[in-house]
Amino acid sequence: MLLWILLKGVMMGLAIAAPVGPIALLCIRRTLVQGRLIGLATGFGAATADGLYGMVAAFGLTALSDLLVNNTGLLQLIGGLFLCYLGLTTFFTQPTLATAVLTAAPSDRRAVSRSASLFSAYFSTLFLTLTNPATILSFAAIFAGLGITQTSRLSSVTLVFGVFTGSVLWWLVLVSGVIYLSSRLTPLRLTRFNRLSTRIFGVLIFGFGVMALVLWASQF
Length: 220
Known about the structure:
single chain; mainly alpha; about 0% strand
């Protein structure tokens, strides 16, 4: 029984993490420019947020849930502004600097990863994902649909662990795929891709931020 609940949680975590959004774009971009470790730290930040929201829904932490939902507008504003900032910094990144990392030897790229801040990548993504408190409502609906309530502690813990595991699995697959594909490109093609992706990723991430701000403004 618990194994089946765990599998349901894993599938739920995969379904929540897989859709392409600003977090996925950040993960891909950071993996390309800063390496595997930074990409994984980015994904794990999002997985942690999914696990935390799943925990709130599973254990019926009503006060915290109500606080987040009642302040959805404020969190949406903060998240939108942060996405706009990330989009602009990505767009205006010097392509020559990023290309130097992309075309470096694997040992040199690992050195760049170690020098970059894993904590910054992790916590920035955790913060960005937590600015979407409406996720709690989705988790609550899914938990109710599966017949798991806060009275079943062991089932709730198992499902939350499954959600986190599924989300982590997706980010592992995504980062590994990006590393694999980038290693197949020639230095010239990688350079061209970097010049183009710097602009495209920046515009897309900024666009997600603008969408969040528009949704925030529509509430008034």
